Amino acid sequence: MESLANPLAPARVAASYAQVLLQCIAEEGVPAAELLQAAGLAQQPAEDWALDDFLNLLQAATRAEVSADLAPALGLRLGQRQRVHSFGLLGLLLLSCSTLGEALQQVLRFEALVHDLGRSRFEARGDEGRLIWTPARELDAARHALLIDWIFAGLQQVCDWLSGRRMPLRALQLRHLPAHPAAHQAFFRAPLQAAQQDALVFDVGLLDWRLPQADPTLQPALLQWAEKALAQRLRLPAWTPRVRALLQRDLAQGPSLVSVAAQLDLSSRSLQRALQAEGQGFQALLDGVRHQQACDYLRHGRLPLAEVASLLGFRHASAFSQAFSQWQGCSPRVYRQGGGRS
Q1: Rounded to whole angstroms, how far apart are CA atoms 236 and 239?
Q2: Residue 308: which CATH number?
Q3: Beta-carbon-side half-sphere exposure of residue 139 (alpha carbons within 13 Å)
Q4: Pfam families annotated for this entry (predicted)?
Q5: Cα 199 from Cα 155, distance rounded (Å)
Q6: Across the chain, how many H-helices and E-strands are there?
Q7: Per-residue pLDDT for 6 more than 60?
Q8: Can you tell me the mean pLDDT for 320-330?
Q9: Is residue 295 part of a domain?
Q10: 72 and 218: one domain?
Q11: Do 141 and 31 belong together in one domain?
């Protein structure tokens, strides 16, 4: 089982989830404003966090200059503060589940409603189950360890609360073993194992545990609500206006498909597919923006053609003149004189 994700949807982290980090930081004596500043952020987002901003916040939390005592075992402390309501709509859905296995299914299905930090999947081999979590991006060791600790400690905390008893683990498998494992061993009460994938290992029989606080009468309505929210979350956004806005802003720098895709957190191929789905192409959009800007410069200003070419991202005036003639049917000089205007 694996949660669904749309690689073209803007990556983000729910505000309720990010708030756990900010509250923990404040309780450790580091003002939120100080951490935000260290992350290069002017203020806390009013709603969801962009994934890049949140990852910058994680990086700031691992820096020694923020607090000498903050980084060690921070992920575990974040997980201990995790509550069902931190998961928003997914948290409400978990409260309606009758068994631990049913709750796991909802996590796998609706994890994208909470964050795009990574994705969970479940594997069962005989009587052993493994809940594997993979970050969406390859991170430095410090952020990777912090995030994995937070995710796994949070899952342990929520499962314990939902079931009303401690969920025993067979092992905690980590790509980056902690230098001082005592805190992990004390919290998870399980042996730590070096592995190529980060995973919680447990007896699959635990999935049959009944959840005493379950309210299955609410589940049909909550599932309908969650499915609707997931569909909205994974819906393809309108990429054309976003690409056009970036082209207009960065035109003088000579924007490319690669550079624009990177700003949108996409691969070049994904951006091409997204634009094609909207009946557009990157080069056509770039030409359109350049054409419009060129007409404005030529119509309302007296800038030399070489300078106009530079403002439009052309290295040479001759390349600009050739392109403009193809767009407009006349040379830039003739257009400026009024000979090519309709």
Answers
A1: 8
A2: 1.10.10.60
A3: 24
A4: Arabinose_bd, HTH_18
A5: 11
A6: 16, 7
A7: no
A8: 91
A9: yes
A10: yes
A11: yes
Extract long-range pairs of 262-265: CB within 8 Å, 24+ residues apart: 264/10, 264/239, 265/10, 265/11, 265/51, 265/52
Question: Structure pTM?
Answer: 0.67
Residue 199's DSSP bridge partners are 132, 173
Domain that holds residue 19: 12-117+136-162+209-232
112 touches 185 (CB < 8 A): no
Same domain, 39 and 97: yes
Q: Token pair of 184, please?
A: 């992990």
Q: Residue 108 has what pLDDT?
A: 93
Q: Is the pLDDT of residue 97 over 70?
A: yes
User: Mean pLDDT lowest for which of 202-206, 297-301, 336-340?
Assistant: 336-340
Q: What is the mean pLDDT of residues 250-278?
A: 88
Mean per-residue pLDDT of the chain: 87
Number of domains in the chain: 2
Instruction: Look at residue 274 in the predicted model and tell me its pLDDT.
Output: 83
The 10s digit of each residue's pLDDT in 106-137 is 999 999 899 989 999 999 999 999 999 999 88
Query: Which of residues 182, 198, 232 is at a domain's end?
Result: 232
Task: Report CA-CA distances (Å) from 178 to 19, 72, 198, 280, 308.
Answer: 25, 10, 13, 49, 57
**How many other CB atoms are there within 10 angstroms of residue 6's CB atom?**
14
131 within domain boundaries: no
The H or E element that residue 305 is part of is helix 305-311
